[in-house]
Design a protein that fits this description.
alpha/beta, two-stranded parallel sheet, 10 helices, 8 strands
Length: 196
């Protein structure tokens, strides 16, 4: 059985409130950065705190929106890191959300960030691309298959958070032109299931 995303499930409208997406909608200024995934060392969401810190140093306002849970030790460590870095007001974290709700978050986000060590496929990258949200990620299985750096996403190592900040600042003014040029529009349906 092939892998893919259920377009019907992702694009269906969800009536129940989704607090994180509402908080994103209420943010008037600055970048809206989104991470969806487990809180675990392999995915390394803590790296994204360094990216937010770097954006702030460069004078760019930004908030990180996190949807994801993990074991008690990992979530406690992540919460402690947020507080230690003084980012309590800049990180909005919701541990769980229904799949049908995620589209609202992707639509609000300026960028989707996935600093993972490895992915078998990279389903969340495909979801971000479905909603035409520019994805930044590391070299891994999903990125190798789905993203051409500088064309339909960005592939970076985790060596320097300032590189992530710089790429976002460069992309943002022309983000609409960056989103998934013609060849990608033909490529994405290969990974979609359900009706679009």
């Amino acid at each position: 059985v092939g892998v893919g995303v259920d377009a019907e499930l992702l694009s269906s409208r969800e009536e129940e409130p989704f607090e994180l997406a509402e908080r994103m909608r209420d943010q008037a200024d600055g970048l809206k950065l989104l991470y969806i995934g487990r809180i675990e060392p392999r995915r390394d969401p803590g790296f994204l705190l360094r990216v937010v810190e770097e954006l702030h140093k460069r004078g760019t306002a930004a908030k990180l929106y996190v949807v994801g849970d993990g074991d008690d030790m990992q979530t406690a460590a992540f919460a402690k890191q947020i507080k230690a870095m003084g980012l309590t007001e800049d990180v909005i974290w919701q541990r769980k959300a229904r799949q049908q709700q995620l589209g609202a978050a992707y639509h609000q986000a300026d960028f989707f960030l996935l600093p993972t060590e490895y992915e078998i496929f990279g389903m969340v990258l495909l979801e971000a691309m479905f909603f035409e949200t520019v994805a930044l990620t590391t070299p891994n299985g999903g990125a190798d298959m789905l993203i051409q750096d500088g064309e339909n996403g960005v592939v970076l190592t985790k060596d320097h958070p300032e590189e992530w900040a710089e790429r976002m600042e460069k992309i943002l003014p022309g983000r609409e032109n960056f989103l998934y040029p013609g060849p990608f529009q033909a490529y994405l349906p290969l990974f979609l299931t359900g009706e679009t």
